[in-house]
């Protein structure tokens, strides 16, 4: 049986629970490894290479316009849920667990203290999995009016009142909300986006503000750099912005570069540092700038 499994991918790539199977196999391999250490069995039977790993495709992110379009297409009582999910990068369980005391509209802060999970069909409120999960998250000022209106119209009264409540007074459930979510996305003309992808979107936006990895970890409630980096995405436009930023530093450094004494001007065929022409190559974005030394281009023995 082991040999047959090794001949190909033993997991059905089309199965919806492929990740669950991989995690189960990883756990089983760990259990068997412990049994070997304890002398209960001679050899670990879980020998399938990479059996406990799964390649998860990168999830899409939404644009700011997409987020507002979905929020506008959502029921009024869920607009703040969508905006906070995206721009504060909060998880579903964190959002539906919010109480009025957790949201300080005056300070523009959300103090996350608990998370909601379903247990036997009932919502169970408990502390976050780690200390990193207990955190304060600043709300972008541009969406504070929406949050304020929501607190006035839809949140339950009292410090312990739930912030997000369904039309019939129940705490929203993911399976019911998914139907509302898909309808809102369809009306906004957006396909293939899950609610959890809003969290990816929020982290992407946060990572583009020059926030450090430690700051992103704090905002997202992660205890490891690896977990924080998973949610960071780089777009081609952002890559261009980074390159342009590096280019600006290069241009500034070249402009400050001292000319050797007696050098009256740029050598024939060369433009001054910071311009975009090189000898015989037409317009070049600083390609030859590093070769300028005492008015000549140095050879580059090694690339």
Quick overview of this protein structure:
This protein has 303 residues and is mainly α. 40% of the residues lie in helices and 9% in strands.
β-strand number = 9
Mean pLDDT: 75
CATH class of the largest domain: Mainly Alpha
Question: Which regions are unreliable across 5 or more consecutive residues at pLDDT < 50?
Answer: 1-9, 264-303
- Strand content bin: 5-15%
Give the second-level CATH assignment, the architecture of the largest domain.
Orthogonal Bundle
The percent range for helix content is 25-40%
Rg, nearest Å: 28 Å
The secondary-structure class comes to: mainly alpha
Could you please describe the fold and organization of this structure?
By secondary structure, this protein is mainly alpha-helical. The protein has three domains: 56 residues, no CATH class; 167 residues, hpI Integrase, Chain A (Orthogonal Bundle); 38 residues, no CATH class. It has eleven helices and nine strands. Helix 3 packs antiparallel against helix 4, helix 3 crosses helix 7 and helix 4 packs across helix 8. The radius of gyration is 28 Å and the shape is globular. The protein starts with a helix and ends in a 6-residue tail after the last strand.
Question: Can you tag this structure with a few keywords?
Answer:
about 300 residues, mainly alpha, hpI Integrase, Chain A, 3 domains, two-stranded antiparallel ribbon, 11 helices, about 40% helix, globular, disordered C terminus
Q: Could you outline the blueprint of secondary structure elements for this entry?
A:
Elements: H1 2-6, H2 18-37, H3 64-73, H4 79-87, H5 92-96, E1 103-104, E2 109-112, E3 115-119, E4 122-126, E5 135-138, H6 144-153, H7 174-188, H8 197-207, H9 213-220, H10 225-230, H11 236-256, E6 277-278, E7 282-283, E8 292-293, E9 296-297
Antiparallel strand pairs: 1-2, 2-5, 3-4, 6-7, 8-9
Helix pairs in contact: 3-4, 3-7, 4-8
């Amino acid at each position: 049986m082991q040999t047959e499994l090794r001949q190909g991918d033993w997991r059905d790539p089309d199965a919806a629970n492929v990740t669950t199977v991989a995690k189960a196999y990883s756990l089983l391999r760990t259990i068997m490894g412990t049994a070997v250490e304890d002398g209960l069995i001679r050899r670990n039977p879980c020998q399938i290479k990479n059996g406990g790993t799964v390649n998860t495709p990168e999830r899409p992110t939404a644009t700011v316009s997409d987020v507002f379009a979905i929020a506008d297409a959502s029921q009024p009582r869920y607009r703040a849920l969508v905006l906070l999910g995206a721009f504060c990068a909060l998880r579903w369980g964190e959002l539906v667990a919010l109480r009025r005391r957790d949201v300080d509209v005056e300070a523009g802060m959300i103090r996350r203290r608990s998370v909601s999970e379903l247990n036997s069909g009932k919502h169970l409120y408990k502390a976050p999995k780690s200390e990193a999960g207990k955190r304060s998250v600043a709300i972008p000022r541009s969406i504070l009016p929406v949050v304020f209106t929501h607190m006035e119209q839809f949140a339950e009264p009292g410090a312990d009142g739930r912030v997000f409540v369904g039309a019939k007074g129940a705490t929203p459930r993911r399976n019911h909300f998914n139907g509302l979510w898909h309808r809102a996305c369809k009306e906004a003309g957006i396909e293939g986006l899950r609610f959890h992808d809003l969290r990816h979107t929020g982290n992407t936006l946060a990572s583009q503000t020059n926030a450090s990895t430690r700051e992103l970890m704090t905002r997202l409630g992660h205890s490891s750099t690896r977990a924080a980096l998973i949610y960071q995405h780089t777009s081609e436009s952002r890559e261009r912005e980074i390159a342009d930023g590096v280019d600006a530093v290069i241009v500034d450094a070249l402009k400050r570069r001292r000319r050797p004494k007696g050098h009256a001007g740029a050598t024939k065929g060369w433009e001054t540092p910071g311009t975009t022409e090189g000898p015989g190559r037409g317009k070049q974005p600083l390609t030859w700038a590093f070769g300028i030394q005492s008015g000549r281009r140095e050879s580059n023995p090694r690339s």
